[in-house]
Amino acid sequence: MILSGTLAKRGHRASCRFKSLVFLSDRDGMREDISESAKFNGASVLVVDDNPQNVELLLETLDDEGFEVRAASSGPIALNEAKNAPPDLILLDIMMPGMDGYEVCQALKADERLQQIPVIFVTSLTDSTEKVKAFAAGGVDYVTKPIDLDEVVARVRCHLTISKDRDQLESAKQALEAAMLAQATRLQRYEPVSADMPSAHAVNDVGEDMQLTERERECLYFLARGHRNDRIAEKMDITVPTVNFHVANARKKLNSATREQALAVAVSLNLVSPHASEDD
Hints:
- The protein is an alpha/beta fold and about 280 residues long.
- The chain is built from twelve helices and nine strands.
- It has a seven-stranded mixed beta sheet, sandwiched between helices.
- Helix 11 (about 240-255) packs across helix 12 (about 260-270).
- About 30% of the residues are buried.
């Protein structure tokens, strides 16, 4: 393969430059490890191009910027590499023999595991129709040849940042949904608070504000049903000491010496409604 041979001729100079490079050759699908040093811990970029000069230029530049760089000389090899070890971003040449860049990108976007990887096209085509085609295939951006290395680095950093922010937002969304589901599941273990706890806010006869927290109201809610602390803890999925803590806070706010007095005050102020004892 011309590409691997070109790199081999550069000998020591090439091996010193590409510290984090793992290069993929078309020959028998074999991989040539150009460096024995450890890979950088930075974001991984897969460069896909059949032109050895373009590959070397991009690899050296991105390697110097601290990226973990890999290269593939054809579309099929790029797809196999992406499936085996999905990169954080792909720099993809459009004009390649056999499977062109558009087809590679479409195949990436059809794979659920790979469809979120940002693809930046590298092209010598300047026709606006071709640029629109690149975006339609799933690309997020493009750079034109001759390559401006500063522009490449800037665009790579920009889209890696966007991708990272998107992933963080998705993680936060999933965490929020999980928390909401857990809360809904917990509340389903007993009656909705709105049915029997009309208000958490009241003012006593001397004008003092008595604002009970939701947990304090929940504890009084179950006390009104005759539940013991261990049963309340089980229903609220908390510990018995935590139940004691919330009841003590409610007693203090309601100026009551005992929990029975606190419950009576809460009922009289319509903070909770009295109910007969239940076994559930």
